[in-house]
Amino acid sequence: MTTLIAPTETAQIRLTKQTPAYWRVTIDNPPINVMGPEMVKQFQKVIQALEADEQVRVVVFDSAVDAYFLNHSDFLAKLEDLTSLPEGPTGLTPWPDFLVRLTRLPVVSIALIRGRATGNGSEITLACDMSFASREKTIISQWEVGVGMVAGGGPMARLPQLIGRNRALEVLLSSEDLRADQAEAYGYINRALPDADLDAFVESLANRIARFDKWAITQTKRLVNTSLPPDVELGAGWDACIASLGRPAAQEGIKALIARGFHKPGDVEDRLGYYLGELAAQ
User: Fold this and answer.
1) CA 234 – CA 99 distance, rounded (Å)
2) How far is Cα 22 from Cα 44, in angstroms, rounded to an integer?
3) Which of the chain's termini has less CB crowding within 10 Å, N or C?
């Protein structure tokens, strides 16, 4: 096993070779795996490494932080540190650029979800080729409308094709927390599995695919990808997200959540959908 990005005081993602054909990307930004500008830059390094390697066939995304797969953005970071990052090769800003490149990558991507996949976590799940979740411990959420925002990582473009327009609107406009069984029933994820079985299932599947011919994997994925929404739709979502952050409604909503305990371990993060409803009722 070879670690490509060694953990340091500032590393928030570990990219590890299980074998030359099978890699793991482990998100590790305790205590609650929020995504700020530094993590976005590290995701860019991850996608560059995956694109440059000719042997890798499968990459699995998982988390080292208990109860969180990948959470919402870091609202305590400076917004300009994110918006000033240079565009990626797709012409999109770094987060949607990463998501587009992940979906089009000639490598099979699998999300192993245990804990909350809130906002950004849902968006990386939608960008992956497959997703498998802990039945007992997974919660998926596109929470942004509940606080007066628009999501920035493309769920408006991706969800309708995956689960249908009406269900996509339910997910996005309700800002509710979805348990793994409900996400599976909607087609949001591939399968909800007993937590005790999740790791072994994903490991077996990843190793199986990693033994197959890369040309056949690449060509199959390329042809399936003809049904993807245009990249520009993810860019439009990002622009709407950044614009929404400047609205008084969003600023007031985020401040109100933070005053209740948002952005740190506790009940607000654990039951975000409930607290968004409480906020709207006031």
Assistant:
1) 9
2) 19
3) C
Which string of b and e fits 247-265 if b means at least 16 CB within 10 Å? eeebeebbeebeeeebbee
Amino acid letter, 113: I
Q: Where are the alpha helices (DSSP H) in 61-152?
A: 79-83, 94-104, 120-127
Report whether 133 contacts 180 (CB < 8 A).
yes
Q: Name the class of domain 2-195+221-281.
A: alpha beta
H helices present in 53-93, as ranges: 79-83
Instruction: Kindly report, residue by residue over 41-81, the tens digit of the pLDDT.
Output: 999 999 999 999 999 999 999 999 999 999 999 999 999 99
Specify the residue for token string 């959470």: 71
Task: Tell me how crowded residue 215 is: count the other CB atoms within 10 A of its CB.
Answer: 9
Stated as kind and residue range, the H or E segment containing 19 is strand 13-19
pTM score above 0.90: yes
Q: Write the pLDDT tens digit of every residue in 143-166.
A: 999 999 999 999 999 999 999 999
